[in-house]
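Let us practice reading a record.
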Amino acid sequence: MNTRADTRVFVGGQRAAAIPNGDRGFAYGDGLFETMRAHRGNVPWWDAHWARLQRGAARLRLALPDQVAARDEATDLLDGGDGVLKLVVSRGSAGRGYAPAGASSPTWTLSLHPVPAAFPANGLTLRWCAMRLAIQPVLAGIKHCNRLEQVLARAEWDEAAARVQSADEGLMCSSEGDVVCATSANVFVLAARRWITPRVDRCGVAGICRGWALSALGAEQVRLSVADIESADAVFLCNAVRGILPVARLGAVSWSPHPQVAALKSQLAAAHPAFTATSPE
């Protein structure tokens, strides 16, 4: 496991010593990011991450770095090791103000981080977040750099820890009350022998592991209520860093390990070598 953290900054295609003054990503969150699980110097889902980055760039109308150059730099940074690779792309530098006109070449960074510690082997404990996700279809699905809703939601159970109400993750609803996701993962539930997951057409992120699981399970995308989650036969979370994460408890509701979730974990291990049985997640 790679335990070092390293960051490289680029303006256009050139290395830079630091993020430039006036960078719009820093000033306004005017950018996109991808967080990718690496294995032995490679990013198995690189193409899927880049495709989502392209969708986001088209939505925000910002330029991306050259993909070949970005991947070459990623390979060099990984140096044959494992870890979590984060790519951030901002619109670049411009004068003060919201208008994006005049932005220079995109600023982008690559950083390498350790694989996170394992969650409990018997499944996650979840909580409901009080923070709601605003409905904004233009930004739905993409991984833009404004994550204040998730930051505030994640702070809720840090504050609750002193009252013995801690959890491994939290589920978030939209401002209209439908369940959307966890703070840093997508959610799937088994109900009436079918797998379903919330739509992310109004808010939330279309996760890379979510896309894989949709195909592997033949799952449906629907609007889910709180009651749909709490009455499910099985629940799991997923993201591109930790893979498939079975859920054991949500408030007063608990679930036993489900064979279909275990089978899906085995399928994922065959599709992405970082998620083998010996992996932390």
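A brief commentary: The CA atoms of residues 130 and 153 lie 7 Å apart.
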